Amino acid sequence: MAEFHRIIIDTDTAGDDAAALIIAAKNPNIEILGVTVLAGNVSLEQGAKNALAVLELIDDPSPVYMGASTTFSGEEKTCFSVFGADGMGEADLIHPRSKPQEKNAVDFILETVRANPGEIEIVALGPATNLALAIQRDRETMLKVKRIWAMGSAGFGPGNATPVAEFNVYKDAPAYKMMIELGVPLTILGLDMNNEFTWVYVEELQEMRSGNKIQQFMANCTRKLLEFKQRNGIPAVDFPDALAMACLAWPDFVEETTLCSASCITEPGETYGMLIFYKAGHTYDSMPTIVGKPNISVVSKVKSSEFVKRMNAVFLS
Q1: Which CATH architecture has domain 5-316?
Q2: Across the beta sheet with 296-302, what order do the strands follow?
Q3: More confident residue, 288 or 100
C-alpha cells in the first residue's frame, strides 16, 4: 500500500508549479492541507491568483495563504521570467473567483506543524523564503516537520540562473541555506533530472490544445516558456516543479537517491546560490572529514521516460 502524505505546498506559482499542484490534488494518497505562496517567478499577489485559478480549474478546495513578498534578507535578485509576466503564459487564463485566506502563510505553516508533530511534509517548489521565516520564528516547531521535498539546486549538473546556480536557490540563497541546515529529512530534486526525456514537445502541446480543460490550460500557460525554449533551439517545455512533486506522488518514480550533506553559497560573486553536495561515505583530498550530518537525499535517477505519459494521465483523470 502506498504511503499517505499530508502536505503543505509552498509555491511561487508559475506553469510548472501548476502541473505540480494538479498532480498532488488528483492523487488519492495525498492530502493538501494548504498552499502557501511567496514571490519568486512572479509577485506574491500574482502567485496567489495563479494558485487559486489552478485549484478552481480542478475543483480542489485547498486553501491558499499569502506569505513572503520579498526575500529573507530584503535583497532582490533579478531573473528573466521565462513563464511571462503573469507566470502563466500571458494567455489571459487567470481570473479566480475565490480569495486567499486572511491568515499569513508562515502562521499557517507553524500552526499546522505544531498541531501535527511528525506528520506534515512540505513540498517547496519556489524560493525557501516562507520556510526560512518559519524557521527564524520557531525552529523547534519546524524540527517537527516529517520531511521537506524541494525543487532546488542544479543537482549534480549545471544551473539555469547562472552556470552553477538554479533559480529557486539563486532568488534567496540565505533562505535556502537555512532550510538545508535545519536538520529535518530533506529530498531535493535538481535540474539535472530535468532532461529531454521529461520534456513536453511541440507536437504533444498541439494535441493538448485540443484536449480537455486541464490539458488546454497547461498547453496555454506554458506558451511563453515555449517561445523562450524555441529561441534557444529547444522545441519543448519542461516541468521541473512537477518532477519534484512526482517524486512524492508516485512511489516507484524515484529509482535512486544519493545521501549528502550540503552547503549553500551566500557570499556575493560568481558562485552565489550554488549548492555544494558532499556525498556520504566519500572523502576529498583537502577534507578527510566532511562537516555536517548527511540528511539530504538528492534524487539521482528517476523513470524519466515515463514522466510525460504519467503526467498527462493525471491531466486526463
Answers
A1: Alpha-Beta Complex (3.90)
A2: 64-66, 30-37, 5-11, 120-124, 147-151, 186-189, 296-302, 254-264, 275-279
A3: 100
